[in-house]
Amino acid sequence: MKDQTRIIHSVPVDELTGAVSVPIYQTSTYVQEAPGVNKGYDYARSNNPTRKALEDIIAGLESGAAGYAFASGLAAIDAVVKLLNAGDEILAVDDIYGGAFRLFTHIYEKFGIRVTYVDSTDAANVAAALTPRTRLIWLESPTNPTLKISDIRVIADIAKANGILLCVDNTFASPVSQKPLELGADIVVHSATKYLAGHSDLIAGLVVTRTQELGDRIKFIQNASGAILAPFDSWLVIRGIETLALRVKQHSENAQQLAGFLASCELVRNVYYPGLPNHVNHHIARKQQKFSGGVISFDLHADSEELAVKIVSSTRYFKLAESLGGVKSLICHPATMTHKSIPREKRYAAGVTDSLIRLSVGLEDAEDLLADLQEVFESVRKEQAAIAG
Ligand SMILES: *Cc1c(COP(=O)(O)O)cnc(C)c1O
Fold it and tell me: Is the pTM of this model over 0.85?
């Protein structure tokens, strides 16, 4: 069964009424026949049928044993870290999502969990950085915003050989493009806020585990800590997932066209897009991703913050906003927005220069998106020519 068929037929038909859309069970508790005798549902933090439908759908889509839905991507990440004990160490990709970095450093370090960061695009760095206390390897692939890619299968083998859990944040790729559990990872997390929900209308997170045993531990943490996803938001994520395969394909086709255009632009210095043959990790992307995704970053020859800010403020269809993965195209300037709190040298080391611009390519017609960028670049070129002349 292919993904689109699997997705559509993993959304269950309601047994009670035959409703083809999953009912929203907006309830906090359930009547019991006798104390402790119930229909599998006793209190809605522990179990909710709408959330359960979403959890089963994402488990199937990621080829996992069990899935769990959380109030945000960060709550999902938080649940995975809670598998660890004081004294344990996490080895994480150095280009990690800023919110995960903040959680690891400012919350978990004070509870005695140490985190070290490596450039995991070379798997040898991962093997070399392990210590006897490493319990969890944390990957993101592709990363944000320069779309670095790590070889999940090779790193999964390293993790397995050392008895260490491997968790992959699969937000940027989505499960229709990349299935980390099939490549040997133990856990997948998502910010479902992005491609899975797909319409920029909610915040949600998901965890999928390879084994039921790990799933039971996540379930315990989900119930004990309580950061569950609400029934209506669960329903919206299900509705988003129904069109995921179509959307990711179109996001990728649109982005591939724009990346080609950007690579040919005089103004542009570097284009970061895994679908371009000159992307540093293009060969790994080809091996483990079906699609190259909808996020592109690029910077400018004149490494000017002023010029970058002018560009992100001038586009018509690309709306200036953080986040990604929605139907509407977005543009942002990481140096003054998402990566503002990172010191300049550290930012530059990660490729986040003053002129770096990130696009989340949406589902508008590619011709219109292309024209939008062409018009802005042309007006910048004319302005520069006028200044020079
Ligand atoms: C957005 C994002 C998160 C955090 O998810 P929220 O839903 O905003 O809490 C985690 N990882 C990646 C890669 C993200 O892009």
Answer: yes
Kind and range of the H or E element at 230? Answer: none
Strands (E), 22-157: 66-70, 89-93, 114-118, 134-140
| Averaged pLDDT, 112-127 | 97
Kindly list the domain boundaries of the chain, sorted by start residue.
3-241, 245-388
Protein residues whose CB sits closer than 6 Å to any atom of ligand 1: 72-74, 97, 99-100, 140, 144, 169, 171-172, 191, 193-194, 203, 205
Q: What are the φ/ψ torsions at residue 337 (nearest 5 degrees)?
A: -120, -95
> What does the alpha-carbon distance between residue 183 and residue 196 come to, in Å, rounded to a whole number?
20
Which is the closest atom of ligand 1 to the Cα of 100?
Answer: 10
The backbone torsions φ and ψ at residue 68, rounded to the nearest 5 degrees and listed phi first, read -140, 140
Model confidence at 97, pLDDT cuts 50, 70, 90, reads: very high
Q: 245-388 in CATH: which number?
A: 3.90.1150.10
Q: Of 174, 189, 194, 229, which is best to mutate to test ligand 1, by the most ligand atoms within 8 angstroms of its C-beta? A: 194
Amino acid at 12: P
CA neighbor of 47 nearest in space, from 71, 67, 28, 72: 28
388 pLDDT exceeds 90?
Answer: no
Q: Which amino acid is located at 248 in the chain?
A: V
Q: Which amino acid is at 341?
A: S
Q: Whose CA is nearest to atom 6 of ligand 1?
A: 73
What is the phi/psi pair of residue 138, to 5°?
A: -115, 115
For the segment(s) 3-241, the CATH number from 3.65.10.10, 3.40.50.300, 3.10.20.90, 3.40.640.10 is 3.40.640.10
Least Cα distance to 90 among 71, 116, 108 occurs for 116
State the residue for tokens 């992959």.
168
Q: Do 108 and 255 contact (CB within 8 A), yes or no? A: no
How far apart are alpha carbons 353 and 340 in whole angstroms?
Answer: 11
